[in-house]
Write a structure and sequence with these properties.
- Chains A, B, C, D: Keywords: Hydrolase, One-carbon metabolism, Purine biosynthesis.
- Chains A, B, C, D: It is an enzyme of class 3 (hydrolase).
- Chains A, B, C, D: Residues 5-88 form the ACT domain.
- The structure is a homotetramer of 284-residue chains.
- Chain A has helices at residues 16-26, 60-75, 99-109, 128-133, 148-161, 178-183, 204-211, 246-269; strands at residues 2-11, 29-39, 44-53, 78-83, 89-94, 116-122, 138-140, 166-169, 188-192, 215-222, 232-239, 273-276, 279-282.
- The first copy, chain A, has 8 helices and 13 strands.
- The first copy, chain A, is globular.
- In chain A, 34% of the residues lie in helices and 30% in strands.
- Chain A starts with a strand and ends with a strand.
- In chain A, the strands form 3 sheets. Chain A has a 7-stranded mixed sheet with strand order 7-6-5-8-9-10-11. A 4-stranded antiparallel sheet of chain A has the order 2-3-1-4, with helices on one face.
- Chain A has 284 residues and is of the alpha/beta class.
- The interface between C and D is medium-sized, with 16 and 16 residues.
């Protein structure tokens, strides 16, 4: 049986759930999981539905066309219907830090991530040996302030060539240009090494140490044009104390970065994240 | 507008969600929140729905009768429909420990708990002053091994008199008798001072200390005839280390007990807990 | 046997620990616990020592005089030696929020806090019934923008009269004046309802909701003239998600505020906190 | 300057800290960090001291001899003095699960672990490609119930040949024989995939699922002859709910296993763990 994931959002209205579930009955689909949320302030309705299609004679394509013309049209929905068997293609952008890269490739090799990783892009050569070790094509796209546009162009061509669905910045340390952001809206995941909105920008562990906080954090979010201001996908924290140096903060933070980024990748790959008003709805 | 909470469980079947949501449309109700869960192993369907009724001419009583004869009958459902405005009546059973009692009555007075507390029962007089301080009727029901049955009878009469809906054992330290358990099935909440199933029974902090664990816990659960084996509602933990004595464990544990019990009370009072196969479905 | 707590800080130098521990041997004291910390950046040494004096013929007063003239003088130490049996006197400042007040008075009544609470001060009468309920003198000190100086003067006189050692702002919601801060330097504990330095100032839960964070927090800190910028004593967090409204944030936050403030009070009362460079050394 | 770590335990007596710190002064050493603990129940004193030797003319060997004949002899101490620059040699035992192996080798390659990993031993060939990928010698030591003694003998010879200091069972899934345990007492670290003492033995995630717990855990401990009963080094937990299947427990558990094992390795490698009465003193 074909498994599907349906994501919907629209203005909140009476009868949406009834309409969608009736539609599923009509096309001989079973609901495996249904999650729904209403943002009362914004008056927006969100739904995520996992189902399976029991009649092989009714194709996914025909279901999509039918849904678009009836339900989606009536309720003015934004929606996507995914075939669960098709894994999204993910590009890794890295720079010199290796811990997130090791972690992601280890999980990928262990079969934990529901993605394909066709390639890695970096502005430095430092991490090429790791890409080689895991047999992932590595593309060196160096650039300076002066030729950043050319660098971006090269990145975009690679993303097209490999048909990349979403991008993960694994401690990439470079600011993404508006053009690339607009091509991958809510599809570029960054890991920031602080508990946002505390300590945005550079050297957050140093700032946290100076402030004398008792807890540090990490935040994964979608990249928008405002630095470290995009929709937050996941956050986690670790306790620190006076005995910890800045170096300890950085070391403890590595575990946070690894975990929080890996969770965000999983959530995104499993189509569990929806974005609205610079916030996320995350259906666990 | 009348707010309602609907809880359902039944054998998993095609079309349940569609039927229920269509029913809501029919009786002019809006769905505010819908949560659903399928226990795949047991093949059981669970649903919790919060809604509001927009037509004052359609009474809750008529809705209940209609639902029973149509949907509930067709799908062989176990179900309850609550009026959200009616607070459940909760009895507190205590013994000599005062910290959970202070915490619950403080929260109650601060308006945090969606319950009424018409009375407190204890086998000792130690905590009467606290009941007095908060103006809650306190009933002293002492008993020994030999007259436990009479004690239980007295408890049951008090529970009836006050029309108690559910019971909270706030470190009550006495074993509840099967008769009382059967009268309040899945309606007696206990707090056990360990991370069950580790350290059931007496003196769990001492056992945890002896074993050298690095984390202690507390568990709230419904009382069943098997001691500390009932359906778990909520658990939480705290870190300990070699510098902590048994007394430190006990002191840290008090915070866990307070919090975990208060959360369980809130979940139960808000009708967010369903029980099946000695496990709970908790719709947060 | 007399139990003592010794707190020391001074420029880091060779031989401090040896000198202090030799001194203890000389005055026939046992070390029960010794914690020490060196702030490498600032080159400052911190020590906390719990001991017991075995010879009743050697008085605490003579030990203090001896220590001052020898060890403290040689190493140019700032230090304090406390008799563990003497509980510090704590004043509560409250306004209209009752949850922290209930929690603190419940813990106090349950014997969990190693303090005396001789009185409560408030600018409103709302919480007087709670003070009455727990039999704590309640002083109503109202003031407006125009007569804040007079209000402060009245507060200071009450603090003197009751010989208050430290002040706890239990959601007091008023800005403390520089004069009072200077009289109680590092002795006024505030609870801020966010994970500082994120969301300082007013309405942090609303800001956190707007930003779409996945974790909220609370922070207890000593009050300094810079609002929400004082040395952090303790922080904790709770997970939130898209299903939580601002009201849910506030409700979850109440538990954080209670816990984090109670921990800070305990740490301060047990003389486990030392302040330096706007940070705390907390010897757990 | 030579950096050293000194670990001591002995019967608790007056004057130990003074004696040790005076000794450090005598051999021209600075104390960088000193942690001490007294197990009051057992009357045992523990100390961990990090220091640096400022006089290159006083050798570590002479310091050790001096310490043994004076301080250690007087107080009947068990003690070790480590040169911080010399990394312990760690052997990995694996079977078929790959996630802990990827994690450890990723951390090792990223320079996070203060160890050398000269080799990996496995009873299966499945993970050889990972060892190859990271260029670590892989020794296949298969055995059956009938020739377990020969297998063990081969393991012991490899451990000797590589001068292994401690062993890490990275989800090894085999019971270690008493002979090997006695050769590496408190030097074999296991990761158990439950919150011990809950769910010892096989299939803990399945048992946790069946019991309906709300939190799962992982435990790293030293291996003793009693299965899953050895001294606990570190534990951590993750929340689960009714929506999680056994497979979800297993997936979430992988993160716990990785983290908890990695922390235990770090603590052991940094000589921060001392064992006594089947418990650990962990100096963070």
């Amino acid at each position: 049986m074909q498994k599907i994931t349906l994501l919907i959002h629209c203005k909140d209205q009476k009868g949406i759930i009834a309409a969608v579930t009736n539609f599923l009955v009509k096309v001989e689909g079973n609901i495996i999981y249904l999650d729904q949320h209403v943002d009362v302030e914004q008056n927006v309705f969100f739904m995520r539905l996992e189902g399976e299609l029991t009649n092989p004679l009714i194709s996914v394509a025909s279901i999509k066309a039918d849904f678009e013309q009836t339900i989606a049209h009536n309720f003015k929905m934004s929606w996507d219907l995914y075939n669960k068997e098709i894994k999204p293609k993910m590009a890794l952008f890295v720079s010199k830090y290796n811990h997130c890269l090791y972690d992601i490739l280890g999980r990928y090799s262990a079969g934990e991530l529901n993605v394909e990783i066709p390639m890695i892009i970096s502005n430095h050569l430092d991490l090429k040996p790791i890409a080689d070790q895991f047999n992932i094509p590595f593309h060196h796209v160096p650039f300076t302030k002066d030729n950043k546009i050319e660098g971006e162009q090269q990145q975009i061509e690679l993303l097209k060539k490999y048909e990349i669905n979403f991008i993960v910045l694994a401690r990439y340390m470079q600011i993404i240009t508006p053009r690339l952001i607009s091509l991958y809206e809510n599809k570029i995941i960054n890991i920031h090494h602080s508990f946002l909105p505390a300590f945005p920008g550079a050297k957050p562990y140093h700032s946290a140490f100076k402030r004398g906080v008792k807890i540090i954090g990490a935040t994964s979010h979608y990249v928008t044009e405002e630095l470290d201001e995009g929709p937050i996908i996941e956050q986690d924290i670790a306790r620190v104390s006076h005995i910890n140096s800045v170096e300890d903060f950085i070391m403890k933070g590595r575990d946070l970065e690894r975990l929080v980024l890996a969770r965000a990748i999983k959530l995104h790959a499993d189509r569990k994240v929806m974005v609205y008003s610079n916030k996320t709805v995350v259906f666990y």
